[in-house]
Amino acid sequence: MRTITLRRSLVALFAAAISFGAITQAQAASQDKSVLRIGYQKYGTLVLLKAKGSLEKRLAEQGVEVKWTEFPGGPQLLEGLNVGSIDFGVTGETPPVFAQAAGADLLYVAHEPPAPTSEAILVPKDSPLKSVAELKGKKVALNKGSNVHYLLVRALEDAGLKYSDVQPVYLPPADARAAFERGSVDAWVIWDPFQAAAEQQLQARTLRDGTGLVDNHQFYLATKPYAQKNPEVISALIEEIRAVGEDSKADPDKVTEQVAPLLGLSKEITSIAVKRQGYGAQFITPDVIVAQQKIADTFTDLKLIPKKLSIADVIWTPPAKVAQAAQ
């Protein structure tokens, strides 16, 4: 009963939107290239792209207006994508799996290089816990269906524990931090910049980050109708994301100066998050599909999604000339 309830609660985050499927399809089908609606989170290259303003200038030449919407996490962003409020967005590895399981009409467009240190299992500075194995029976806060969900599963497996050996407490980042500070949870699985902020402001200790466990790719996703109808817009968008990533690798201090006020965080905290991030967006490759399929199969085996998925079925294929130029 617990497994069925848990599975339903996870998939329900996206499935509630599926009842509007016919409306969503109509909205997406009528959406032309005059507007590109982008969903972003408080981290990552899209924040940098928004601040730079280069995308707006480039797409204006094609008659395309860019609109931005911020989301607290990947699951919420993909729910927005599913109901037709955005056309494109970025999330970690796990949210697209749950969204696909719930029937979202999405396509993987591109990915960033691995960034395993930009997510971690944190414990309070005075916590007696010294290893993941000691989490058995403990309360662990996380954003359900997010990238850190898979990190927790893998970390527990590596420590000889099952997912059912801990008490997951599903909370979005702001609420999870409050619970972490109150001491009402024993650990918190979180990503940057929330991770860096907790480390610096609360002196939270890292019990385990993603090193040796997960790739922690960031994925760029689009609604299937928009990507298929507007390949030139999507291609230009990925080119701009890649260019911002190259700038970031070349001068992380400049990026920190630019982004810190946008995040409302100190330069010290922002710098940590910026330097741990992966940069260099690329279209989806076969090895990335294999890795993402492993994540999907893991959640299927845990009965957290109801059926086996095929990641290869939801990969966007860029125009031939664009794919060749990216190689």
Automatic annotation (TrEMBL):
<dbReference type="InterPro" id="IPR015168">
    <property type="entry name" value="SsuA/THI5"/>
</dbReference>
<dbReference type="GO" id="GO:0042597">
    <property type="term" value="C:periplasmic space"/>
</dbReference>
<comment type="function">
    <text>Part of a binding-protein-dependent transport system for aliphatic sulfonates. Putative binding protein.</text>
</comment>
<dbReference type="GO" id="GO:0042626">
    <property type="term" value="F:ATPase-coupled transmembrane transporter activity"/>
</dbReference>
<feature type="domain" description="Solute-binding protein family 3/N-terminal">
    <location>
        <begin position="35"/>
        <end position="247"/>
    </location>
</feature>
<keyword id="KW-0813">Transport</keyword>
<feature type="signal peptide">
    <location>
        <begin position="1"/>
        <end position="28"/>
    </location>
</feature>
<keyword id="KW-0732">Signal</keyword>
<dbReference type="Pfam" id="PF09084">
    <property type="entry name" value="NMT1"/>
</dbReference>
<comment type="similarity">
    <text>Belongs to the bacterial solute-binding protein SsuA/TauA family.</text>
</comment>
<dbReference type="GO" id="GO:0016020">
    <property type="term" value="C:membrane"/>
</dbReference>
<protein>
    <recommendedName>
        <fullName>Putative aliphatic sulfonates-binding protein</fullName>
    </recommendedName>
</protein>
<dbReference type="InterPro" id="IPR010067">
    <property type="entry name" value="ABC_SsuA_sub-bd"/>
</dbReference>
<dbReference type="InterPro" id="IPR001638">
    <property type="entry name" value="Solute-binding_3/MltF_N"/>
</dbReference>
